[in-house]
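Reagents: none. Just compute today. Xaa-Pro aminopeptidase.
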Amino acid sequence: MRQTFDESTDPGFGPRHVPLIRAAMARQGLDGFLVPHEDEHQNEYLPAANDRLAWASGFTGSAGAGVILKDRAAVFVDGRYTLQVRDQVDQGVFEIRDLVEGGVPAYLETAPKGAVIGYDARLHSPQALDGLKAAAARAGAALRAVAVNPIDEAWGAERPSQPAAPVVPHPVQYAGEESASKRARVGSAVAALGADAAVITAPASIAWLFNIRGGDVIRSPLPLSQAVLRADGTARLFLDPAKVTDDLPAWLGNQVSLEAPEALDAALADLAGQKVLVDPAQSSAWYFDTLAAAGAAVIRAMDPCTLPRACKNAVEIAGTIEAHKRDGAALTRFLHWLATEGQVSPPDEKEAVAKLEAFREATGLLKDLSFDTIGAANGHGALPHYRPTERSNERAAMGSLLLVDSGGQYLDGTTDVTRTVAIGEPTAEMVTRNTLVLKGHLAIARLRFPAGTTGSAIDAFARAALWSHGLDYDHGTGHGVGVYLGVHEGPQRISKAPNTIALQPGMIVSNEPGYYKDGEYGIRIENLEVVMPAQAVGTGDRPMHRFHALTLAPIDRRLVDKSLLSPEEIAQFDAYHARVVREIGPLVDGEIRAWLEAVCAPL
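Predicted 3D structure written out:
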């Protein structure tokens, strides 16, 4: 199996490792140290060698932060991880605090006056760092950049090696555009912003720009590297020679200089006197400091690859559609198994995860999972980012819900889908609350919206039915998704948090409202949707965008209360299921085809 059920940390990490970190801090004259979750590439999912917060505290979530002072420490998480963090972190060492409400800045305001708190400039964006410095100053403390990260020093020889997965060409039949063409148009965008060059540090941007893929980041085909793109479309790509495959230099061509990472410092120094674009949200403060020291004029602007990467071209969309059909057939086989064998002998979480992975593997085209499958039975369903382990594994109980959030990486697309399935007879409350979640999901799926609409402007549509019953969920409604890239991709998203990026044609975004009852069950219904070009609506005078569902798999009808749905919602639900039969039906046969037609019959 690709997914394992081993635990990479335990609550003993804090008691064992924090004293070592404090000793390293003391040797540098530090009274504290900031521990972000992000690494040198601002990654969400990290190579083991860069997961410093996990090594320091035991917390393995994909978002969080830590602060270690001489006499106390804290870990900060958002609403997705409030239960997980208490399971993974020793609260005798770390106080658990909210990442959003107050967060690290509020904690720094309680630092001792005169304290010197260290930070690694390679791990913090300048945007985040500005707020942290201001908070420390309010306490009379000061932040100081370190030359050597105390965690790295404390970790020592036990620290895993940096990943060195082969970097390979990503054929144009999947990318839809030659790298030279991408570099030329992105270079023109750089020039239009008044810059001579751009420093690109986001692995997804580099993979997209150069039409390459790697394997340095778990579940994502990303190469850890950096690049300098000039306004004329030529580039310098800094890549560990151990990753360079035989055909890569010829694939990159003469306009791309392939260099070792050790040459990066000199390359930044070569930009002295030039105007250089750097993204303050995706590149660390170290780049800004280094360029300023070299005498370059830094232009703070969005990574120029971000929007072009997010707006998929026709080839990428066509490939994604095919990937979702293939993936939908695998998921349908899994759901059939749950509806038959799984109802007679309910599976445990590990069995469910393994079975689904086997169905995807049987396609013969699976490159990897797009993230570790969330197979959450019983009360674990209330943990939005739960991952089963040997220790936590539970068998689904009769009368319970099994939440399965999963996805696959294929050369032509990345999938991410959640289905919640009743094991045995669900309670009336489960059915009601699942139907409220479904109403929110349907509201987003049928929405029409004008150009310029952001995800934050439509988030409430997904929550309105839940709100009317005094219910809500503590995560975003949707995130961007790449094409054989990261399963979480910006800049688009659907969430309560303010977002200035409009939803544009070709963007792929998830539609995943949910509901979670602590200790009892969780519900989430997730499809991926692609934003379609604006078209006229009836006799209206303004064209409207809409979503087109990419994900095709049945939704458990046993968890739907038809009386809570409007005629419009019933028609929409039935139309979606009719499409599932039409497009997935030919990919399955026999008993599974008959079952699919039955569970997708009109309400």
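The mean pLDDT is 96.
Action item: order primers for follow-up constructs.
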